[in-house]
Amino acid sequence: MEFKNLRIYQPDGTFRTGGLVLSGDRIASTPVSADACDMDGLYAIPGLVDIHFHGCAGYDFCDGTEQAISAIARYQAEHGICAICPATMAYPEEKLSAVMQAAAAYRTERCGAALVGVSLEGPFLSPARKGAQNGAWLQNPDAGLFRRLQEQAQGLIRLCEIAPELPGGLDVIGELAGEVRLSLAHTEADYDTACEAFRRGAREVTHLFNAMPPITHREPGVIGAALDNDEVGVELIADGCHVHPSAVRVAFRLFENRMILISDSMSATGLDDGVYTLGGQEVSVQDGRATLHGGTTLAGSVVDLFECMRRAVQMGIPLGQAVRSASTNPARAIGIQHDYGTLEPGKLANIILLDEDLNINTLILRGQIL
Predict the structure, then answer these.
(1) pLDDT by residue (tens digit) across 285-303?
(2) Whole-number Å distance between alpha carbons of 81 and 261
(3) What confidence tens digit (pLDDT) does each residue in 320-353 have?
(4) Segment (H or E) for 119
(5) How would you classify residue 225: left for phi > 0, otherwise alpha for psi between -120 and 50, otherwise beta?
(6) Terminal-residue alpha carbon distance, the chain
(7) Among 264, 272, 273, 287, which one carries the catalytic annotation?
(8) 228 noted as active-site residue
């Protein structure tokens, strides 16, 4: 399969005019022939990588079934997300173990996004910043529990969220830093505590601005600490509800190449308004906004990562920077950059072709038009 006259995304966030040759499920290094399919200047970007979301299409990752994972993977692939690292909610160990076993047993389907990892969001979170997490199932960080769950997942856990100020939090970060990527989340940590967490090996901040103290001129908190530690990546939900467009622009200017767009989507994504569940709690969805039933606490988003990327562009983020944050950076964050995140020869042929208005023209998943 060959395409010419494309505007092809580059790893630095720029675009070049050229062509792509696919060989099996990979991008080939051979030149494009004259009779290649002319794509009339469409944008070619790599399939997206969502490393933090909970569900979609009526299913939740914590349903703990292969059927749920399959439905989620198909929906994601249909919306340009080629690789997924779904997140848990806080649950008892028995429940989380079942979720991990289902993930380990799942095998990627031909028309589904690849399950490349799991994000353990909960139970090591602060009750003071629990957001939509169920406070009854939160607990202090426990390396032993993490390792038991990782064994059940057969090594699939690639991200572990943790509030470092909790008793034992910093020690657990130091102990697990060589085993999993650690992200500060649902936390009351101050600047010094966050910096110490980064010194001990934490390398990410979960959904920047949400479920953490705001940055102020005397108390910069987790956000200021992340800014001062260049090796730390930051996740951002650009759905238009979680973060004001101005703050989205501020975040991209501050963190530049370290931004990671996530959707944080829940099971209502792709469905009508109504009442759903997340983490064992009722969630009301109305006019594109998901909140805990009867309250105002945000409970994830109801848009997929492709839509978050498009909305970021509408908010003023350059397309190349938005693509890098939704594909290249998340792939690097969880260590799958050898196969995902760019359109370089040798990578998996996961390609989205877009028109000028960022509508999807063609989806190619592992070398096959979807």
Answers:
(1) 999 999 998 889 999 999 9
(2) 12
(3) 999 999 999 999 999 999 999 999 999 999 999 9
(4) strand 118-120
(5) alpha
(6) 14
(7) 264
(8) no
